[in-house]
Design a protein that fits this description.
Elements lengths: L1 H13 L5 E6 H6 L2 H15 L1 H18 L6 E6 L1 H9 L8 E3 L1
Antiparallel strand pairs: 1-2, 1-3
Length: 101
């Protein structure tokens, strides 16, 4: 029963409804290579799931394209707590390139 309850809490915490909305800009694209972003999202897939990982990657691709024409482009992303923790464990400080919404 305790394992089931823990799994339920982890699942709920990873849903976007409990996520922090952050706006990321072109600094993300310039600071981290696509390989680095791909690696971290690959690691995140097991934590936040395929659908949310694909959604975040889609925002990244869209932002990368927009930054080629507008250096001030931004995208708003739902950042699940589990992903924020994973980024921090890998030395990525989300506050350096994102602002809370």
């Amino acid at each position: 029963m305790k394992i089931l309850a823990t799994a339920a809490v982890v699942t709920l915490v990873s849903f976007p409804a409990f996520a922090e909305k952050v706006a990321v800009g072109c600094q993300l694209v310039s600071q981290y290579s696509e390989d680095q972003v791909g690696y971290l999202l690959g690691e995140a897939r097991s934590v936040i799931g395929d659908q949310e990982t694909n959604r975040i990657y889609g925002h990244y691709v869209s932002l990368r394209s927009a930054c080629q024409y507008d250096g001030n482009a931004t995208r708003v992303v739902n950042l699940p707590p589990a992903l924020r923790d994973l980024l921090a464990q890998n030395g990525v400080d989300i506050r350096r390139f994102a602002r809370r919404m």
